[in-house]
Design brief:
By secondary structure, this protein is an alpha+beta fold. It has 3 domains: about 200 residues, Sandwich (Jelly Rolls), CATH 2.60.120; about 100 residues, Sandwich (Immunoglobulin-like); about 45 residues, no CATH class. Helix content is about 15%, strand content about 35%. It starts with 8 loop residues before the first helix and ends with a helix.
Length: about 450
């Protein structure tokens, strides 16, 4: 059962306009076990074997905007649940006049020596400032996208010494200029409980000084090929002035598996972009969601610098004309009729965050049992595991970009849509609530991040 860490929590939420008492719990919330929640590796598209999960109990405090340092802790907060949620153990609201502070310690394993150490956040709503051992590491704006920092320079040199991680969060919700989706400080009509702070997994991983930072996989079913684009970090020795010469000493070993059986294996001289000619492979469909596991090894001779795991599907989404000349959605060049639901991704006990991975997957399994083949994720994103589950179960995803802007936007935007009016000049932006340049800039920046990730 849930163990509330803060005795004052019930007093703090008394009279709240949007916290039910007693809280409405899911079956996973009723049997909540913090030791089993959100322990899965959080990045299925680029996996490494070594990592450290920082979910769990952190110290927290809420202050005014003037404070430059974290005040005395007010209790414990359970990460990765939003501070407003029941499962966070806090269940307090945050306004545009507040800062939310987090703090915890961690120890770097000695076996990670001579590696770069990255600190990852699945998502933090909205503006987060990160400190390690009282040193400013960096700031990130955006409540729906993952981000990371190389914290190697800020760590203690002694591996048995605790490092202190502190996170400062500012989240004005609809009072600010950022996309906020369905969140509203005073929920009403079609708007729901706001969420603030860390709401996806926090984790640390060791990465070689020569390693793959990003991978993009693009299948081509027409040519039976897979394009691989890599962004790789190289650290040439001091006596090597030409990085391209250094790159040329590396090899890429690529192997593809289908149901754990190897179907492709080849080595290449390192290059940022490759195009693999594949053997005939089954296509992905919702009725038969075939996936292929991918392993890439970066090495010099016999020395392995990095090895990552990923996955892909052989599929193509397109708009094409059918036999009667009507433009229709096609999957793998065949007309495909999608039947799906609008999934808003709110949980009564965890709000933006499902109680655990089983709960997250349960919803999708239920949709499949009901005969659906598509899910529209409505003005919210999900942890990367959710997208992996959709691929595994056979669900096409329609992904919304979380909206922002001012009040009255929903009704006006709906009318504009019906009239086929696209307000893209400065005189008409007010119709969709985007008359402020900062609102538009934040929307565009976060949209680009969402597509990139």
């Amino acid at each position: 059962m849930l163990n509330m860490d803060n005795k004052s929590a019930s007093k703090q939420i008394k009279g709240s306009p949007y916290f039910p008492s007693p809280p409405m719990l899911t079956k996973w919330g009723e049997k909540f076990d913090a030791n089993k929640a959100w322990k899965s590796y959080p990045r299925p598209q680029l996996q490494r074997p070594k990592w450290l999960n920082l979910n769990g109990n952190w110290e927290y405090a809420i202050s005014n905007l003037k404070l430059q340092n974290m005040p005395a802790p007010e209790g414990k907060i359970r990460v990765p649940f939003p501070v407003e949620s029941y499962l966070s153990g806090v269940q307090r609201s945050l306004t545009s006049k507040n800062l939310l502070w987090y703090r915890r310690t961690f120890i770097i394993p000695e076996e990670w020596k001579n590696q770069r150490i990255f600190l990852h956040f699945g998502a933090v709503d909205w503006e987060s400032t990160i400190y390690v051992n009282n040193n400013l590491v960096g700031t990130h704006k955006g409540g729906y996208n993952p981000f990371n920092f190389d914290i190697t320079p800020f760590l203690h040199s002694a591996f048995d010494k605790e490092n202190v991680l502190m996170v400062k969060v500012y989240d004005p919700t609809e009072k600010g200029h950022q996309p906020s989706g369905k969140q509203w400080l005073k929920p009403a009509v079609v708007f729901y409980t706001p969420i603030s702070g860390i709401w996806q997994t926090v984790w640390i991983e060791p990465v070689s000084i020569n390693a793959i930072d990003r991978i993009t996989l693009t299948p081509d079913i027409d040519k039976n090929q897979l394009s691989i684009n890599l962004k790789t970090h190289f650290t040439p020795p001091e006596n090597e002035t030409n990085e391209n010469n250094w790159k040329s000493t590396f090899l890429l070993d690529i192997e593809i598996f289908h149901h754990k059986k190897s179907v492709f294996k080849e080595s290449f001289k390192y290059q940022d972009s490759l195009c693999l000619d594949l053997p005939p492979l089954p296509r992905w469909t919702p009725e038969k969601p075939e996936l292929f596991d991918l392993q890439i090894t970066l090495r010099q001779d016999q020395k392995i610098h990095d090895q990552i795991q990923s996955y892909f599907a052989m599929r193509k989404f397109s708009l094409e004309r059918d036999s009667k000349g009507i433009m229709r959605f096609h999957l793998n060049h065949k007309p495909y009729f999608m039947v799906g639901v609008l999934d808003q991704g709110y949980w009564p006990d965890g709000l933006y965050t499902a109680p655990n991975e089983d709960a997250l997957r349960f919803d999708l399994e239920f949709l499949k049992k009901c005969g659906f083949n598509m899910v529209r994720k409505h003005i919210k994103t999900e942890p990367a595991l959710w997208y992996r589950y959709c691929d595994q179960l056979g669900l096409i995803i329609w992904q919304d970009m979380p909206n922002g802007g001012g009040k009255g936007v929903i009704a006006r935007s709906f009318i504009l849509h019906l009239l086929n009016i696209n307000p893209l000049d400065d005189k008409m932006y007010w119709l969709s609530g985007y008359q402020k340049l900062l609102v538009r800039e934040n929307f565009q920046r976060e949209l680009k991040e969402m597509v990139k990730n």
